[in-house]
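Hi, here's the filled form for the chain we discussed.

Project: internal
Contact: R.S.
Residues: 260
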Amino acid sequence: MSRWPLWAVLASGEPAWLESRAYDALCLEKGEEGDEGPPFEMSLGSGRYHALVGTNPIDVGAEIQIAKELSLECDEPVYSIERANDPWTVMSWRKGTPDVLEEEPESLAKFLGCPLPGLEKRSNSHPIKPLRKAALVERVSAQEAHRVLEEADDPFPPGHYRLEDTPRGLLISSSTGNIGFADITVSERIPHATVYAVMASPDLDEFFVTVRRGGEGIEEFAQPPDEFPRLRVVGEIKGERAPERILAALGIPAEWFRNE
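And the returned structure, exactly as it came back:
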Protein backbone atom coordinates (compact mmCIF):
# COMPACT_ATOMS: atom_id res chain seq x y z
CA MET A 1 0.00 0.00 0.00
CA SER A 2 1.70 3.15 -1.26
CA ARG A 3 -0.44 5.80 0.39
CA TRP A 4 -1.68 6.50 3.90
CA PRO A 5 -4.98 4.67 4.55
CA LEU A 6 -7.80 7.21 4.87
CA TRP A 7 -10.64 4.84 5.71
CA ALA A 8 -11.23 1.25 6.71
CA VAL A 9 -13.97 -1.24 7.46
CA LEU A 10 -13.30 -3.95 10.06
CA ALA A 11 -15.57 -6.98 9.83
CA SER A 12 -15.62 -10.67 10.67
CA GLY A 13 -15.99 -13.33 8.00
CA GLU A 14 -14.14 -15.04 5.21
CA PRO A 15 -11.95 -12.50 3.36
CA ALA A 16 -13.24 -13.50 -0.09
CA TRP A 17 -16.85 -13.10 1.07
CA LEU A 18 -16.14 -9.72 2.69
CA GLU A 19 -14.45 -8.48 -0.46
CA SER A 20 -17.31 -9.66 -2.67
CA ARG A 21 -20.00 -8.07 -0.48
CA ALA A 22 -18.02 -4.81 -0.28
CA TYR A 23 -17.95 -4.61 -4.07
CA ASP A 24 -21.69 -5.25 -4.10
CA ALA A 25 -22.21 -2.43 -1.60
CA LEU A 26 -20.36 -0.05 -3.91
CA CYS A 27 -22.22 -1.37 -6.99
CA LEU A 28 -18.91 -2.37 -8.58
CA GLU A 29 -17.57 -5.51 -10.23
CA LYS A 30 -14.13 -6.73 -9.22
CA GLY A 31 -11.72 -6.54 -12.12
CA GLU A 32 -13.80 -3.95 -13.98
CA GLU A 33 -12.56 -0.84 -12.17
CA GLY A 34 -10.43 0.33 -15.09
CA ASP A 35 -7.03 2.00 -14.89
CA GLU A 36 -7.80 3.54 -11.50
CA GLY A 37 -7.43 0.19 -9.75
CA PRO A 38 -9.54 -1.24 -6.91
CA PRO A 39 -11.30 1.12 -4.46
CA PHE A 40 -9.87 -0.75 -1.46
CA GLU A 41 -7.38 -3.42 -0.44
CA MET A 42 -7.86 -6.36 1.90
CA SER A 43 -5.68 -6.42 5.01
CA LEU A 44 -5.91 -9.86 6.62
CA GLY A 45 -6.16 -10.07 10.39
CA SER A 46 -4.93 -12.74 12.76
CA GLY A 47 -8.39 -13.79 13.94
CA ARG A 48 -12.02 -13.40 12.90
CA TYR A 49 -11.73 -9.76 11.83
CA HIS A 50 -10.19 -8.44 8.63
CA ALA A 51 -9.89 -4.91 7.23
CA LEU A 52 -10.89 -3.36 3.93
CA VAL A 53 -8.72 -0.28 3.52
CA GLY A 54 -8.94 2.69 1.12
CA THR A 55 -6.36 5.36 0.34
CA ASN A 56 -8.03 7.63 -2.23
CA PRO A 57 -9.49 10.87 -0.77
CA ILE A 58 -12.24 10.81 -3.37
CA ASP A 59 -13.52 7.52 -1.91
CA VAL A 60 -13.84 8.76 1.68
CA GLY A 61 -17.42 7.93 2.68
CA ALA A 62 -17.37 4.51 1.04
CA GLU A 63 -16.64 3.04 4.47
CA ILE A 64 -20.13 4.03 5.63
CA GLN A 65 -21.82 2.36 2.67
CA ILE A 66 -19.75 -0.83 3.00
CA ALA A 67 -20.08 -1.09 6.79
CA LYS A 68 -23.84 -0.58 6.70
CA GLU A 69 -24.36 -3.32 4.12
CA LEU A 70 -21.97 -5.80 5.77
CA SER A 71 -23.59 -5.26 9.17
CA LEU A 72 -26.91 -6.48 7.79
CA GLU A 73 -25.33 -9.90 7.21
CA CYS A 74 -22.70 -10.16 9.97
CA ASP A 75 -23.51 -11.52 13.42
CA GLU A 76 -20.71 -9.53 15.04
CA PRO A 77 -20.40 -5.72 14.94
CA VAL A 78 -18.86 -4.11 11.89
CA TYR A 79 -16.66 -1.06 12.43
CA SER A 80 -16.06 1.84 10.06
CA ILE A 81 -13.08 4.13 10.48
CA GLU A 82 -12.67 7.45 8.70
CA ARG A 83 -9.35 9.12 9.42
CA ALA A 84 -9.04 11.63 6.59
CA ASN A 85 -10.49 14.30 8.85
CA ASP A 86 -9.60 15.57 12.29
CA PRO A 87 -10.97 14.26 14.60
CA TRP A 88 -11.20 10.72 13.24
CA THR A 89 -14.62 9.06 13.18
CA VAL A 90 -15.15 5.51 14.42
CA MET A 91 -18.56 3.83 14.19
CA SER A 92 -19.93 0.49 15.29
CA TRP A 93 -22.64 -0.95 13.02
CA ARG A 94 -25.25 -3.56 13.97
CA LYS A 95 -27.92 -4.60 11.46
CA GLY A 96 -27.58 -1.36 9.53
CA THR A 97 -27.68 0.91 12.58
CA PRO A 98 -24.58 2.96 13.49
CA ASP A 99 -23.26 4.14 16.82
CA VAL A 100 -20.45 6.72 16.98
CA LEU A 101 -17.68 5.47 19.29
CA GLU A 102 -15.09 7.32 21.35
CA GLU A 103 -12.35 4.94 20.24
CA GLU A 104 -8.84 5.46 18.90
CA PRO A 105 -8.86 3.76 15.44
CA GLU A 106 -5.54 1.94 15.66
CA SER A 107 -6.20 0.70 19.20
CA LEU A 108 -9.54 -0.74 18.09
CA ALA A 109 -7.95 -2.37 15.04
CA LYS A 110 -5.18 -3.94 17.12
CA PHE A 111 -7.72 -5.20 19.68
CA LEU A 112 -9.63 -6.93 16.85
CA GLY A 113 -6.45 -8.49 15.51
CA CYS A 114 -6.22 -6.52 12.27
CA PRO A 115 -3.91 -3.52 12.76
CA LEU A 116 -4.23 -0.94 10.03
CA PRO A 117 -1.38 -0.83 7.50
CA GLY A 118 0.78 2.27 7.28
CA LEU A 119 1.40 2.80 11.00
CA GLU A 120 5.09 1.97 10.76
CA LYS A 121 5.52 4.19 7.71
CA ARG A 122 3.91 7.11 9.51
CA SER A 123 6.26 6.85 12.50
CA ASN A 124 9.24 7.48 10.21
CA SER A 125 7.76 10.30 8.19
CA HIS A 126 6.15 13.69 8.60
CA PRO A 127 2.81 13.88 10.44
CA ILE A 128 -0.20 13.20 8.25
CA LYS A 129 -2.15 16.33 7.40
CA PRO A 130 -5.84 15.92 8.18
CA LEU A 131 -8.26 16.51 5.34
CA ARG A 132 -11.55 18.31 5.80
CA LYS A 133 -14.59 18.09 3.59
CA ALA A 134 -17.35 20.49 2.60
CA ALA A 135 -19.70 20.74 -0.36
CA LEU A 136 -21.69 23.15 -2.47
CA VAL A 137 -24.99 21.79 -3.80
CA GLU A 138 -26.70 23.75 -6.55
CA ARG A 139 -30.51 23.82 -6.93
CA VAL A 140 -31.18 22.34 -3.48
CA SER A 141 -32.32 24.07 -0.30
CA ALA A 142 -31.24 23.36 3.27
CA GLN A 143 -34.76 22.17 4.04
CA GLU A 144 -34.69 19.64 1.20
CA ALA A 145 -31.25 18.36 2.20
CA HIS A 146 -32.29 17.96 5.84
CA ARG A 147 -35.32 15.95 4.74
CA VAL A 148 -33.41 13.54 2.49
CA LEU A 149 -30.67 12.97 5.08
CA GLU A 150 -33.33 12.06 7.63
CA GLU A 151 -35.06 9.76 5.15
CA ALA A 152 -31.74 8.05 4.41
CA ASP A 153 -31.10 7.32 8.12
CA ASP A 154 -27.86 9.28 7.98
CA PRO A 155 -25.55 7.98 10.74
CA PHE A 156 -24.53 11.31 12.20
CA PRO A 157 -26.62 12.78 15.05
CA PRO A 158 -28.93 15.79 14.62
CA GLY A 159 -26.96 19.02 14.53
CA HIS A 160 -23.79 17.42 13.15
CA TYR A 161 -24.14 19.21 9.80
CA ARG A 162 -24.24 22.90 9.03
CA LEU A 163 -26.71 23.36 6.17
CA GLU A 164 -26.66 26.94 4.88
CA ASP A 165 -28.57 28.44 1.97
CA THR A 166 -26.41 30.91 0.04
CA PRO A 167 -26.72 32.76 -3.29
CA ARG A 168 -24.51 30.09 -4.91
CA GLY A 169 -26.46 27.16 -3.45
CA LEU A 170 -26.54 25.00 -0.35
CA LEU A 171 -23.33 24.71 1.66
CA ILE A 172 -22.83 21.47 3.64
CA SER A 173 -20.17 21.46 6.34
CA SER A 174 -19.64 20.40 9.94
CA SER A 175 -17.71 21.66 12.94
CA THR A 176 -15.51 18.54 12.77
CA GLY A 177 -14.77 18.91 9.07
CA ASN A 178 -16.39 15.54 8.37
CA ILE A 179 -19.58 15.44 6.31
CA GLY A 180 -19.27 11.72 5.65
CA PHE A 181 -21.49 10.55 2.78
CA ALA A 182 -23.93 13.49 2.96
CA ASP A 183 -22.95 14.98 -0.40
CA ILE A 184 -23.47 11.64 -2.14
CA THR A 185 -26.76 10.97 -0.35
CA VAL A 186 -28.16 14.34 -1.39
CA SER A 187 -26.93 13.81 -4.96
CA GLU A 188 -28.53 10.35 -5.17
CA ARG A 189 -31.89 11.47 -3.82
CA ILE A 190 -32.10 14.79 -5.68
CA PRO A 191 -30.83 13.87 -9.17
CA HIS A 192 -31.20 17.36 -10.69
CA ALA A 193 -28.70 18.81 -8.21
CA THR A 194 -25.05 19.47 -9.07
CA VAL A 195 -22.72 18.76 -6.15
CA TYR A 196 -19.17 20.07 -5.72
CA ALA A 197 -17.54 18.12 -2.90
CA VAL A 198 -14.21 19.54 -1.72
CA MET A 199 -11.59 17.76 0.40
CA ALA A 200 -8.49 19.72 1.37
CA SER A 201 -5.61 19.87 3.82
CA PRO A 202 -5.24 22.92 6.11
CA ASP A 203 -2.77 24.69 3.82
CA LEU A 204 -4.69 23.61 0.67
CA ASP A 205 -1.62 21.91 -0.80
CA GLU A 206 -3.77 18.77 -1.05
CA PHE A 207 -6.99 19.77 -2.76
CA PHE A 208 -9.65 17.58 -4.38
CA VAL A 209 -13.00 18.44 -5.94
CA THR A 210 -15.51 15.82 -7.11
CA VAL A 211 -18.48 16.93 -9.21
CA ARG A 212 -21.57 14.72 -8.93
CA ARG A 213 -25.00 14.47 -10.50
CA GLY A 214 -27.56 11.79 -9.76
CA GLY A 215 -25.24 10.22 -7.19
CA GLU A 216 -22.54 9.59 -9.80
CA GLY A 217 -19.18 11.32 -10.02
CA ILE A 218 -18.79 12.94 -13.44
CA GLU A 219 -15.44 14.73 -13.13
CA GLU A 220 -12.68 15.52 -10.67
CA PHE A 221 -10.04 18.15 -9.99
CA ALA A 222 -6.99 17.17 -7.96
CA GLN A 223 -3.92 19.01 -6.73
CA PRO A 224 -1.47 17.37 -6.85
CA PRO A 225 -2.80 15.33 -9.78
CA ASP A 226 -4.12 11.90 -8.85
CA GLU A 227 -1.92 9.11 -10.18
CA PHE A 228 -4.95 6.91 -10.88
CA PRO A 229 -7.98 9.15 -11.43
CA ARG A 230 -11.36 7.44 -11.27
CA LEU A 231 -13.26 10.13 -13.16
CA ARG A 232 -12.69 12.48 -16.06
CA VAL A 233 -10.01 14.92 -14.97
CA VAL A 234 -10.62 18.66 -15.36
CA GLY A 235 -8.10 21.48 -14.99
CA GLU A 236 -10.51 24.02 -13.55
CA ILE A 237 -13.64 24.37 -11.47
CA LYS A 238 -15.99 27.26 -12.22
CA GLY A 239 -13.29 28.67 -14.48
CA GLU A 240 -10.70 28.76 -11.67
CA ARG A 241 -7.49 26.73 -11.25
CA ALA A 242 -6.03 27.82 -7.88
CA PRO A 243 -7.56 26.23 -4.73
CA GLU A 244 -8.22 29.58 -3.04
CA ARG A 245 -10.01 30.91 -6.10
CA ILE A 246 -11.98 27.68 -6.59
CA LEU A 247 -13.22 27.92 -3.00
CA ALA A 248 -14.18 31.56 -3.56
CA ALA A 249 -16.07 30.62 -6.73
CA LEU A 250 -17.97 27.93 -4.79
CA GLY A 251 -18.62 30.24 -1.85
CA ILE A 252 -16.83 27.90 0.57
CA PRO A 253 -14.65 29.74 3.13
CA ALA A 254 -11.02 28.62 3.08
CA GLU A 255 -11.03 28.97 6.88
CA TRP A 256 -13.18 25.84 7.14
CA PHE A 257 -10.15 23.75 6.19
CA ARG A 258 -7.76 25.35 8.67
CA ASN A 259 -8.84 23.17 11.63
CA GLU A 260 -9.00 26.25 13.86
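Let me know if anything looks off before we file it.
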